[in-house]
Amino acid sequence: MSVRSYRSMPPDNAVDRRDFLKHGAAAAAAAAAVATTGVGSRFLFAGESGQAAPAQKTPARPKTNIDDVLKIPRTKTSLPGPYPGRVVEVFDPAAMPEGKVNGDAVKAMFEKGISALTGKSPKESFGLFFSKDDIVGLKVNPVGPGLISTRLELVDAVGAWLEAGGIPRKNIVIWDRFDYMLTDAGFTAERFPGFTIEGMQTMDEAAAEAAMKKQDADNSKWLKPDGTHISVPNFDLETFYWVDVEGPKDLAYLNQHVFNGKHSYFGKLLTKKLTKFINLPVFKNTGHAISMATKNIGYGAICNTNRLHQPLFLDVCVEPLAFPDIRDKMVLNVTDGLRCQYDGGPGPNAKFAYIDNKIYLATDPFALDMVCHNLLVAKRKEMGAPVNENPRNTEYLRYAEKLGLGVVAADKLTHIKV
Fold it and tell me: Between the N and C ends of the chain, which has fewer C-beta atoms within 10 Å?
């Protein structure tokens, strides 16, 4: 029995014991986040009943180092990329018949999507984003393995496109923040021979489970004699998202988050190794908002994030993306909508999962999330799920537009269906 990683909100429905344990270190912050409304969080939460949390006095928004980051000059590859506001939706009913993925159909969908996005063939499109010398990351979402995690076949399709463009397998890195979650979701060297598989940090699941049970935990496997986490060397101490909020000081938090001060450091994988990367999120909700492209990277590229859920929550889907190591390197986003989840997220809940046989492509992750947010709201209405269309649910996307990171205004979005 092992403990899995955090989620940013408590589950809307019952989950199994292993799924429950994975949220241990985040439980207190998540519960606090549910009661938070207003500008401080840019998000309005609701419970299973769909009733909005009682209004409370909005706490002052904590200071961050976003102003310093915005002074860094942009490059030709900076977000929102060459196709701001442009989102391509590709549908093929043959992609996932009866729950089994058709890899050939998914590969064809991806190639059609790339061509629709760029107006060029897949081969010609490669050169718009990459050179043969690039080291390219594929940021997957391994949460909910086998149910709503990034499909292995979609990664196959993207990897094949990169290889066809001349990038050797050893220079393609499938990555996520937690190493064990990659393994759980099937992202292994055996499944992807020649590719590099890299988690930015480890977490001692046995120690985390003991802490959840309020038992004495053996922290010797992750806690060094000097009191630091064994994953500290994986993070770049010179590149950080600073927020004037301290992380909890208990060992259970440190086990999961590596650091517990006011700094959320970026992984060296991003700052030192990768020259470009593709974001491969999953189509799912988090409360009445979504947990898709921007959240997959905002919370996936840095450590010490649980302290940020209550005071900032969805703003963490924006401000870390303004840093050059994301802003200038994340050149493509491909949302996996083969099997989606309209409620109960961002963790897996089979009750609300459904096959939709779609993928979505964009260079602009904020435009992508706005289109997908609207589609998810429509699905919730169709299924009779609680719907809260308060503008706070998408305020973070408009915030990104103000920062010049994306285009989300309805009259500027282009939604192409293939």
Answer: N
